[in-house]
Write a structure and sequence with these properties.
By secondary structure, the chain is mostly beta strands. The chain has strands spanning about 5-10, 15-20, 25-30, 35, 45-50, 60-70, 70-80, 90-95. About 0% of the residues lie in helices and about 45% in strands.
Length: about 100
């Protein structure tokens, strides 16, 4: 039986990876879209969850986990009108 491993942290609104477990970084690919490569790939795609946090964001601002692979996760964030927007995103990957 394989032991579970977690990678967690946050991507700020400008696309910088911050805090958490380390072992990841962030690449802003365009407005509202971030790719988070993982330093140590999982053996199989992990379960990834994310949310939008911080003062000034509305309850209907959103994040979508758009991609999950053994070596990265991808997020798209949007505003209350359904348009891509840059938002801070804490996340965790468990596998």
């Amino acid at each position: 039986m394989q032991r579970a491993r977690a990678v967690y942290g946050a991507v700020d609104a400008v696309g910088t990876g911050t805090g958490g477990s380390g072992a990841f970084w962030s690449e802003k690919t365009r407005k509202g879209t971030d790719r988070v490569p993982l330093q140590y790939p999982f053996g199989a795609p992990p379960v990834v969850t994310a949310t939008v946090t911080g003062a000034g964001w509305r309850v209907n601002d959103n994040v979508h986990v758009a991609a999950v692979a053994t070596d990265h996760a991808g997020f798209q964030t949007g505003d209350q009108f359904g348009q891509l927007d840059d938002c801070p995103v804490p996340f965790h990957a468990l596998g």
